[in-house]
TrEMBL record:
CDD domains: UdpNAET (cd01555). Pfam families: EPSP_synthase. It is found in: Cytoplasm. UDP-N-acetyl-alpha-D-glucosamine binds at R97, D311, V333. InterPro entries: Enolpyruvate_Tfrase_dom, Enolpyruvate_Tfrase_sf, MurA_subfamily, RNA3'P_cycl/enolpyr_Trfase_a/b, UDP_GlcNAc_COvinyl_MurA. One of its GO terms (cellular component) is cytoplasm. This is UDP-N-acetylglucosamine 1-carboxyvinyltransferase. One of its GO terms (molecular function) is UDP-N-acetylglucosamine 1-carboxyvinyltransferase activity. The gene is murA. It comes from Longispora fulva. Cell wall formation. Adds enolpyruvyl to UDP-N-acetylglucosamine. Pathway: Cell wall biogenesis; peptidoglycan biosynthesis. Its EC number is 2.5.1.7. Belongs to the EPSP synthase family. MurA subfamily.
Length: 440
């Protein structure tokens, strides 16, 4: 499909400024949280990305009135939450993972929830067993049918004690969004504590929830009878910020990422510096640049917060292909997050994948029968190629590689994938001096 294709003339460093707005991985959850309230909620700085449109559509099907204000403001009025037909909901089947988080809010409001097949990036099996087990413990009944999940809770859900086998972001959000209106106390052990989760807790607290974050990943939620609305400006997107930082490094450029927040990116910044990248933290963002010296190889493992995010590795690996020596990236969160390396190799990179847990510690997952360690030998000269994007973050890394390469590449799948997480992608590339075109 040529309309989904970006032509990239490589070889020019990215230079200039981009602005990041509210984090993709918070915005959609904040939208879901609005359903829990009886009052109007206002979310500011919402980027124009496709996941927002999908969740908006689902909320509207359930009777939430959504309107837009200036500069990315979204307003939610959930006073008339109602059931939607499975056929209508199924229009959104396979489009996002967020619908699973509607379980608790819809059960509280309606006693029933229908969840279509989930979508999201195909970067692993991505089961929802922790979600379903937690919901059962709250008292929900779950019926899996070929068209999706039907959940019922004829009585008020009850608080519970639950320990996650792994600090899953989605399952932690599931528990939070369910426990806030459940009867009694919920204790969640081994919870995820990503900045996006802390921001969701802030939103719920604004709505009237009582949530205590203890040490050692323990979160205690005291259920309340009723929640109101919220006014919230979300944390900036630290994945997008790191993506532009990696793009600056890989193209030997200099990019000021307005809105980038140091505290949410500390681990990334340490790695960026270890590779040889330079940055300066400013009041309104972070400037990232290639200082001219040869980049250095590093070993890193992806991990839950405060570790190195799994969503940061794909863009950074393009820069690592330009570093001298052997870099190791051990992916411990998802089983199949190296799909993009095939394209980089086609362009001249030297990346080998291994089933072993390379990098230091064994994979906490136990799922070792996957190619989840990458060894990147550099520096490699990159040449243009025709590339097919396999998922969102991989897509960004394809585009960076094309920008760093010699010659003209064609990148397919841009509008399908990149638009899920990067607002005004073409506009931002143009602002940074990238030489890209859309076919006529
Ligand atoms: C929309 C959103 O916020 N997406 C992010 C979210 O995804 P998401 O919330 O889906 O990621 P999780 O933290 O839940 O998944 C982490 C790991 O746990 C496994 N797992 C998860 C749930 C479950 O019930 N059973 C199970 O086995 C998954 O297969 C995966 O291997 O966190 C990931 C980890 O930071 C990020 O890469 C994604 O960008
Ligand atoms: C994996 C991602 O998102 P999702 O969970 O929506 O698929 C991502 O943002 O990189």
């Amino acid at each position: 499909m040529t309309e989904d294709m970006l032509v990239v003339h490589g070889g020019a460093p990215l230079r200039g400024e981009v602005q990041v707005r509210g984090a993709k991985n918070l915005i959609s959850k904040a939208m879901v949280a609005s359903v829990l309230g009886t009052g109007v909620s206002r979310l500011y700085d919402v980027p124009k990305i496709s996941d927002v449109g999908i969740i908006r559509g689902l909320l509207e099907l359930h009777g939430v009135r959504v309107s837009t204000g200036p500069e990315g403001e979204l307003v939610f009025d959930p006073s008339n939450v109602e059931r939607a037909s499975t056929d209508e909901i199924n229009v959104h089947a396979g489009s996002s993972r967020i619908p699973i988080l509607l379980c608790g809010p819809l059960l509280h409001r309606l006693g029933h929830a229908f969840i279509p097949d989930l979508g999201g990036c195909k970067i692993g099996d991505r089961p929802i067993d922790f979600h379903l087990e937690a919901l059962r413990q709250f008292g929900a009944t779950i019926d899996k049918t070929p068209d999706g999940l039907h959940l019922t809770a004829p009585e008020r859900l009850r608080g519970t004690k639950f320990e996650l086998p792994y600090p899953s972001v989605g399952a932690t959000e599931q528990v939070l969004l369910t426990a806030v209106l459940a009867e009694g106390i919920t204790e969640l052990r081994n919870a995820a504590v990503e900045p996006e989760i802390v921001d969701l807790i802030c939103i719920l607290q604004k709505m009237g929830a009582i949530i205590k974050v203890h040490t050692n990943r323990v979160i205690e939620i005291q259920g309340v009878e009723k929640l109101g609305g919220y006014n919230h400006r979300p944390i900036p997107d630290r994945i997008e910020a790191a993506s532009w930082a990696a793009a600056a490094l890989a193209t030997k450029g200099d990019v000021l990422v307005r809105g980038a927040n140091q505290v949410d990116m500390m681990t990334f910044l340490n790695t960026f510096r270890s590779v040889g990248g330079a940055f300066e933290v400013l009041d309104h963002g972070i400037r990232f640049w290639h200082p001219g010296d040869e980049l250095k190889a590093v070993a890193l493992e992806t991990d839950v917060h405060p570790g190195f995010m799994t969503d940061w590795q794909q863009p950074l690996v393009v820069a690592l292909s330009q570093a001298r020596g052997l870099s190791i990236v051990h992916e411990t969160v998802y089983e199949r997050r190296f799909g993009y390396t095939e394209a980089l190799n086609k362009m001249g990179a030297n990346i080998q994948l291994y089933r072993e847990c390379l990098g230091g510690t064994p994979c906490r997952w136990g799922r070792r029968n996957f190619l989840h360690s990458a060894v990147i030998a550099g520096p490699s000269k990159l040449y243009a190629a025709d590339l097919e994007i396999p998922d969102l973050r991989a897509g960004f890394s394809h585009v960076i590689a094309a920008l760093a390469a010699e010659g003209t590449s064609r990148v397919y799948g841009v509008d399908h994938y990149i638009v899920r997480g990067y607002e005004d992608f073409d506009g931002k590339l143009a602002a940074l001096g990238a030489r890209t075109e859309r076919p006529a």
